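Worked example
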Amino acid sequence: MASSKKRILITGAGSGIGRDAAQRLARRGHTVFATTHTDSQAASWQSAAVPRVEAYKLDITDSADRLRARHLEIDVLINNAAVGQSGSLGEVPLDRVRATFETNLFATLALTQVVLGGMIERRGGTIIFMSSLVGRVPAPFLMPYAMTKFALSAGADALRQELGELDCGVHITIVEPGAFRTGFNQKMVASKYEWMREKSYFRHLIPVLKAREERMLALLELRSTRAIVRRIVKAVEADKPRVRYTAPWWQAFGVRVLRIVGK
């Protein structure tokens, strides 16, 4: 059990890593506000009746929804909600890129600002930004998503340094998952085929791209989210969390090697 019980708000807790992390944190004795993108996802939590979990809809792109977090006096905010888009930067529709930035960066920052003031006043708290290992190295055909994670990681690191100037007891940390089999990656890589058809520069390569993606996902994706959930728990429960947590270790190591050799 956790030595110090905390009040935690996690976004994007309707499925995948967010849902698994919310369940694990609740089992460790924390009070968890498991927020979801839709009412139906919140209802699935409510029907499950998980102890110490209060679930409700919080669409982070909706300003009214974001304001619901203002008076919760949470100890930890886990910015987990995200959307994914793929495709070549040479032709991806820009409205898809803008929408991805709106959720993964702008709305995430807006929610952070809603809760940060209270943390500063109470002189304590932790804000976790869920980034991605793909936000550290260029990833062809994944950059509409990966660019948002590059930006999020850089912003979170700078915010950590800014709050250090205040000495206000608020900690900023970044969690970078690799590839986990939650369905998110499959949906993201498939999104480009909604528009990459007869007019695409890459139309003759579509069968090759699909086959390559299937092989890579089969090779890289972990079936269980336990490794990254453990890192989230460590970040939540640490008195002074590290700047960055990653999992699985071997994918994180691979990214470090790619960065060293300049890939």
Notes: DSSP finds nine helices and seven strands in the chain.
